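Lab meeting, action items carried over

1. Structure of the two-component assembly. Owner: GW. Status: complete.
Input record:
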Amino acid sequence: EDQVTQSPEALRLQEGESSSLNCSYTVSGLRGLFWYRQDPGKGPEFLFTLYSAGEEKEKERLKATLTKKESFLHITAPKPEDSATYLCAVPPTNDYKLSFGAGTTVTVRA
Amino acid sequence: DTEVTQTPKHLVMGMTNKKSLKCEQHMGHRAMYWYKQKAKKPPELMFVYSYEKLSINESVPSRFSPECPNSSLLNLHLHALQPEDSALYLCASSQGEQGGQKLFFGSGTQLSVL
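Predicted assembly:
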């Protein structure tokens, strides 16, 4: 069964303390892995799409990487405004709809 | 314009009320979606419209009734809801319906059913 698993569930960081979030997936024939950021009470905001192992994408303090079984979202020198829930999602093997992971809630303290 | 606009932002309704949620996009996207999200959970797909036709209904109770009047608008009509239906309702759109499409989400409607 296709699955998307995110870890850790929650991450508390000091401002400037770099860290990584993990998204592991079991979908065969990956048609893209998506990262979204969601602020409380708001809709998810698209960050990145990764399609093939070895691919990397960056946006400000965020960098997403992809291997054959997992993706990492690296947060470098985070600021309080990076506090949010980060969701990863993949389309399952024989379906079109996105399968979301449960998310990692990141809190960055000043 | 890369926005998906949802109204209202907040809604409180009784179990006997009828209300509607509205969603609009002007990106020329041909697929539009309704998702439901409970607190601290990921979004769950409810409905998909592709080229203004309902293509997916994820076994959603009939008290939720979607409507797509045209390619830019999506409504969700609510009737006789239950308190457990309280959640954040998200609208999204994408260029196509196929897997691997980037979704653009609205800010959501926070619904409370009393």
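2. GW to write a short summary for the group page. Key points so far: The first strand of chain A starts at residue 4 and ends at 7. The radius of gyration of chain A is 13 Å.
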